[in-house]
Amino acid sequence: MEVIVTSRPQELGRLGADAVAAALRVRERPAIGVATGSSPQPVYAELGRRVAAGELSFAAANVFMLDEYVGLPPGDPRRYRSEIDRDVVARLDVDPARVHGPDGSAADLPAECAAYERAIADAGGIDVQLLGIGSDGHIAFNEPGSSLASRTRIKTLTAQTRADNARFFDDDPEAVPRHCLTQGVGTIMEARHLVLVATGRGKAEAVHHLVEGAISALWPATILQMHPHVTVLLDDAAASRLQLGSYVREAWAAKPAWQGL
Ligand code: F6R
């Protein structure tokens, strides 16, 4: 796991975009995993800049979402698919027909989850997966207590997550759906490169567990310690509880340029 701490938000965007750009070069039809929420925004902004400058193209890529609320009707602006349409499809030259996500309004949710797993496998797996982290340590919507081997399935959101996401629902946690469909922890662990972005003091405890805690379903993100290729991009506030803070800064400053991410 490589942990990179920077005080410049643009640097987070640049590094995240570098990882996505590298994945776009790997295969003829690459698969890019996207996250919703605040954390990946600097990455999408930088990717948008590169696409506009003609430096990068998503035309051949499949795009896979992490999760979706259950019960919001198609077209609802608070659906994660709507968010991805605004943040990713509108800014990058992604083919909307190649954006895949679990449909939280499907009549048969278990069948929908199984079909989503098949779609990822049929695309040859995910080359790079962007991730945020919940203040309770969730990745995608794998809340504390999730099986670390889980696959795409329905989950119940914690009160903490519903409070954190109330900002998208007129500040009313009760308006946040109680259920979601989410890639499982085991599904996420199969992506070839995981890039997790976390900013702000509210993430500091979860980041401490992610990087330095014991692997436990209580902090699902800790399983990333077992993945062979993880990049964690942090601002100073999110890194503020790291015991290894000085070491990871020294290691990054001394990293040979040829190594890449
Ligand atoms: C979003 C997702 C979540 C978020 C996490 C952090 O698709 O899967 O795990 O990444 O809740 O959200 P932000 O970035 O808004 O703090």
Provide a short characterization of the protein structure:
The chain has helices at residues 9-26, 41-52, 80-89, 109-122, 159-165, 185-189, 204-212, 245-253; strands at residues 2-5, 31-34, 62-65, 67-69, 99-100, 128-131, 153-156, 179-182, 193-198, 230-234. The protein has a single domain (2-256), classed as Rossmann fold (3-Layer(aba) Sandwich). The protein is built from eight helices and ten strands.
SSE order and pairing:
Elements: E1 2-5, H1 9-26, E2 31-34, H2 41-52, E3 62-65, E4 67-69, H3 80-89, E5 99-100, H4 109-122, E6 128-131, E7 153-156, H5 159-165, E8 179-182, H6 185-189, E9 193-198, H7 204-212, E10 230-234, H8 245-253
Parallel strand pairs: 1-10, 2-3, 2-6, 3-5, 6-9, 9-10
Antiparallel strand pairs: 4-8, 7-8
Helix pairs in contact: 1-2
Protein model, in words:
By secondary structure, the protein is an alpha/beta fold. The chain has a single domain (2-256), classed as Rossmann fold (3-Layer(aba) Sandwich). 32% of the residues lie in helices and 15% in strands. It is built from eight helices and ten strands. Strands 1-10-9-6-2-3-5 form a seven-stranded parallel β-sheet, sandwiched between helices. Strands 4-8-7 form a three-stranded antiparallel β-sheet. The longest helix has 18 residues, at 9-26. The termini are close together. The relative contact order is 0.18.
